[in-house]
Design brief:
The protein is mainly α and 145 residues long. It is 66% helix and 0% strand. The longest helix has 29 residues, at 28-56. The radius of gyration is 21 Å and the shape is elongated. It starts with a helix and ends in a 24-residue tail after the last helix. 13% of the residues are buried. This is Carboxylic acid transporter.
Length: 145
């Protein structure tokens, strides 16, 4: 009903609202609720992205483009776990423990923000016909030579 672009943008912005509860909770209930809501909106965002990518892909690359894009993104983002861990270890709390909250806060806010901005700048292809028009039909006669 809303379209995929609006759904992705809305999920990103709504997810940003719950990041403080996930990163800086004051109780176990706040942490549980915040982490649940962040994951709801992460799934709301990244659950729509593959279908949106299929719609905006050229007909010739419709099956290759989304898969290749996701795998290249995995390749590029693979060092992020090590970067976040190193940032958390170098950013210490007053009692000497590692502070992983701020690296997670900045990375999640940046990801939600970048996805929302790029989706906003993109195009909506809702109700696009995904069938290739020049594909052979099953009832076509074949010639025997």
């Amino acid at each position: 009903y809303w379209g995929r672009r609006f759904t992705i943008i809305w999920a990103c912005l709504a997810g940003l609202c719950f990041v403080p509860l996930w990163i800086l909770p004051h109780s176990l209930v706040a942490l549980s609720f915040g982490s649940f809501m962040v994951m709801v909106f992460v799934q709301g965002t990244w659950g729509c992205i593959p279908a949106h990518m299929i719609e905006i892909s050229p007909d010739e690359f419709r099956s290759t483009f989304p898969g290749m894009s996701f795998q290249l993104a995995n390749l590029i983002s693979s060092p992020s776990v090590l970067i976040l861990a190193k940032a958390g270890e170098s950013n210490r709390l007053p009692d000497g423990r590692s502070n992983y909250a701020w690296p997670q806060l900045t990375s999640l806010c940046a990801l939600f923000g970048i996805v929302a901005i790029l989706t906003f700048l993109g195009t909506e292809q809702r109700a696009k016909n995904l069938e290739i028009s020049d594909a052979p039909t099953s009832n076509a006669k074949s010639e025997v030579v």
